[in-house]
Design brief:
Order of helices and strands: HHHHHEHEEEHEHEEEHEEHHHEHEHH
Shape: flat
Mean pLDDT: 82
Structural class: alpha/beta
Number of helices: 15
Largest sheet: 6 strands, mixed
Number of strands: 12
Helix content: 40-55%
Strand content: 5-15%
């Protein structure tokens, strides 16, 4: 019955989309030729535009379907659906323009085609948003639910249940989970009761209303997978599988299709595509005006260093950034010339005797870090990200600290989540790495803004 309802909704959505597409084409004709917009070539007959609808409607239906826009969207992203509509519309416009050019049967107004693109895409996005919002509201109130049985009772099952509970608008309700042995029956995983062992799955499916089975077996129980799948062969439930990759999925993971073969990216660079564009745009929008505004202060500090301790004014030091790229970080010189000649590469310590008198003030106020704004402008660094470290230290850290190199999957930052929480300089590397990984996993423009505000409010800690 539930499957029948899904098919009815899918058919309704198809009819609605294609009606909107046809209506948008007709509306574009009237807006173009029956408003105050000049038409130098005159007003073409309505039939010339109506006759192309038998071509447009099936093309749009094919493109929308190819984007998966008629598949169940309970756990899908609204942005993904919007992207699918825009992508299908863009491809449809290309096909329409190409067909009218090669067939040369009739010239269609470019403005009318542009209006059609805006009206059809906008109409589908707005109506879909309204439908999804209505369904989400109903599901939160307990309507249109799908009941889920989780096979597994470990950390992975707990993660699945927590994710389901975090999104009540999806209309999924976990009614129970199965464990590897009967001794766990009656216990709970994330508030969900363990209904029995894996071998009891057919009995539970016969006794309870279950729409989906989610396989979340821990690694040590993967040998049960084939038997469980065999038990589900003649059942009508939807079956999904969540692989146990919690021990290796340390960054934002994603699934891609390799010619029909699903592949899981475990350690991919998170800030790619539009995310990378947003972050770079924010870097330039903030740092370029700041650099101009601070230029008088930078000039004064430069002269002060030159007068008190001579040249050079700036200190360049190799640091490692995105994907292991080594670059020269720029800072105001705060130590005596050739300060590491005797000590070798070491971290700055409190009351470090190598500092100049002016250097103590510059480091305490973090003014010595300001030239790194230029590293952000040139693209070697970002405004927010893990602080870059020296390659000589990294060779040691990567052997001692598991996952240390993951922090190099994003650009190094002028400030970061670890720094605003005090993990800077000679402090716990493990805490610093945990904060850096948290930032990478939870990155958003809003988090960057939050870190910038925290930096202005709290400043850098442990600066000496």
């Amino acid at each position: 019955m539930l499957h029948r309802y899904s098919e009815v909704f899918r058919t309704f959505l198809i009819v609605l989309d294609l009606t909107l597409v046809a209506g948008a084409w007709m509306a574009a004709y009237y807006l173009r030729f029956y408003t105050d917009i000049p038409a130098p070539r005159g007003i073409p007959p309505f039939t010339q535009y109506a006759l192309v609808l038998p071509f447009i409607v099936p093309v749009w239906w094919t493109l929308l379907r190819s984007r998966g826009l008629y598949e169940p969207q309970r756990t899908g992203s609204p942005l993904g659906e919007i992207g699918g509509v825009l992508g299908a519309t863009a491809m449809g416009i290309v096909v329409l323009v190409a067909a009218s050019f090669f067939l040369r049967g009739y010239y269609y107004s470019r403005l009318a085609i542009g209006l059609f693109a805006v009206l059809s895409a906008g109409g589908m996005i707005l109506t879909r948003w309204g439908l999804r919002a209505t369904l989400r509201s109903l599901r939160r109130r307990g309507y249109n639910l799908r009941y889920v049985l989780v096979v597994g009772a470990g950390d992975l099952a707990r993660e699945v249940i927590d994710r389901v509970h975090a999104h009540p608008e999806a209309g999924l309700r976990v009614v129970g989970c199965l464990a590897g042995n009967t001794t766990l029956t009656g216990r709970r995983v994330a508030g969900v009761p363990i209904a029995g062992e894996y071998g009891a799955i057919k009995e539970i499916l016969a006794r309870r209303q279950i729409d989906q089975v989610v396989l979340a077996l821990p690694r040590e129980e993967q040998h049960h997978l084939e038997k469980v799948l065999g038990e589900l062969d003649d059942e009508f439930v939807t079956v999904r599988m969540v692989p146990d990759l919690l021990h290796v999925m340390t960054l934002r993971s994603s699934v891609e299709d390799l010619d029909g073969l699903p592949t899981i990216n475990l350690r991919d660079t998170p800030l790619v595509g539009w995310a990378g564009v947003q972050k770079r745009a924010m870097d330039l929008a903030v740092t370029v005006p700041v650099l101009v505004a601070l230029s008088p202060l930078l000039l004064v500090v430069s002269l002060a260093i030159l007068v008190t301790s001579g040249a050079p004014i700036f200190y360049r030091q190799q640091r490692m950034g995105l994907d292991g790229h080594v670059f020269d970080v720029i800072k105001f010189r705060t130590m005596k010339r050739n300060a590491e000649a005797e000590t070798g590469p070491v971290w700055t310590a409190e009351d470090d005797p190598r500092r100049t008198r002016l250097g103590r003030l510059l480091r305490a106020t973090n003014i010595d870090e300001l030239p790194q704004i230029w590293n952000v402008v040139t693209g070697d660094m970002s405004l927010v990200g893990p602080r870059p470290e020296r390659p000589v230290f990294i060779e040691r850290f990567r052997r001692e600290i598991p996952g240390y190199m993951l922090r190099h999957k994003v650009k190094a930052g002028l400030t970061g989540w670890a720094q605003v929480h005090g993990w800077r300089g000679d402090t716990s590397l493990h805490e610093r790495i945990e904060h850096d990984i948290y930032y990478i996993q939870n990155w958003s423009p809003g988090l960057d803004v939050r870190i910038c505000l925290m930096t202005l409010w709290r400043g850098f800690r442990n600066a000496y």
